Amino acid sequence: MKTIAVSAALCASLVACSSSPLPPASQATPVLQSSAGIYTGPLSTQQKLTLLTKLDGSAYLFYRSPSTARAAVDDVVVVRNARQSKDGKFESSQATRYRLVQPRKATPVQVDIDFSRAPAVSGFVAVPGDSADNVAFSANPAQILGEPPTLASVAGLFSGTASSLQGASGAQVTVTGSGLLAGMTANGCEFRGSLTPSSGLTAYDVSVTYGGAPCIDANATVSGSAVLDESQLLVALPRPDRSDVFVFSGAR
User: Fold this and answer.
1) Contact, 79 vs 60, CB < 8 A?
2) What distance in Å separates the CA atoms of residue 90 and residue 28, rounded to the nearest whole number?
3) Residues 223, 195: contact at Cβ < 8 Å?
4) Which end of the chain lies in a sparser environment, N or C, as judged by fewer CB atoms within 10 Å?
5) Cα–Cα distance, 50 to 188 (Å, whole number)
6) Domain coordinates of the chain in residue numbers?
7) Keywords of this protein's UniProt record, alphabetized (predicted)?
8) Which residues of the chain have pLDDT under 70?
């Protein structure tokens, strides 16, 4: 009964969804065309990595447990204003790792990715002053199933987990064929907005406005990115001040 009620609320809230444009891209150095994309592979922590690198110099790294196909996201790293040299080296000191399991915290990190041996890539996420918490990875271009990033390929009702530094709960997200998005967590946070295919990538740009409490940033509008990884929708919406992030991981 609870699932039916949540689904009904999502469908009703879609009527009021906004399709306002995303804010302008950052002032980052553009990423080389050949390096932008989605990559998957193992982390040195034995977790699974899904890496999204975008043409505007931003990147998203989702860490998930390999124990189940539909695991919630344990950590997400959000990279802004990355630089990339012609030899394929990508680096940014303006990155934040959000640990979504205990101890929950946001930590500034350095992200380096080597695309010089593409299609295989390697890299690391370094925590300044704490080498024991550094993470290395290797990855290859993801074998994305299904269609390119059209709205039709992502439309549907996704059920999974919503996480932030405040905690985690069950959640559902509905995406329509016209790009409207609405979601609700089990603890009562509602949000709505838009999802559009990213230019030149098998990924999506997302913008949502939260409802009131108990949302982590009541009534605020935030933007981020989403990717379909083996039919699982991964969404990351960081706060502009980088103090927290809203992450959804779910499947149809």
Assistant:
1) yes
2) 12
3) no
4) N
5) 28
6) 2-23+145-251, 37-141
7) Signal
8) 1-33, 68-70, 143-149
Q: Please give the CATH architecture assigned to the domain spanning 37-141.
A: Beta Barrel (2.40)
First to last CA, the chain: 18
Domain 2-23+145-251 falls under CATH 2.40.37 = no
Q: Write a three-state SS string for 33-92.
A: CCCCEEEEEEECCCCEEEEEECCCCCEEEEEECCCCCCCCEEEEEEECCCEECCCCEEEE
Which CA distances in Å does 184 have to 38, 84, 169, 233? 27, 38, 10, 15
* CA 72/CA 121 separation, integer angstroms: 24
Q: Which of 209, 207, 226, 224 is nearest to 155 (CA)?
A: 226
Question: CA 99 → CA 43, 52, 53, 203, 245, distances in Å?
Answer: 15, 18, 20, 23, 10
For residue 153, give the H/E element and its range. Answer: helix 151-154
What tokens appear for 8 in the block? 């009904």
Q: Are 135 and 44 in contact (CB under 8 A)?
A: yes
Tokens of 172: 């559902």
- Cβ contacts of residue 32 below 8 Å, gap of 6+? 84, 86, 88, 115
The pLDDT tens digits of the residues spanning 96-139 come to: 999 999 999 999 999 999 988 888 899 999 998 888 889 999 99
* pLDDT reported for residue 148: 61
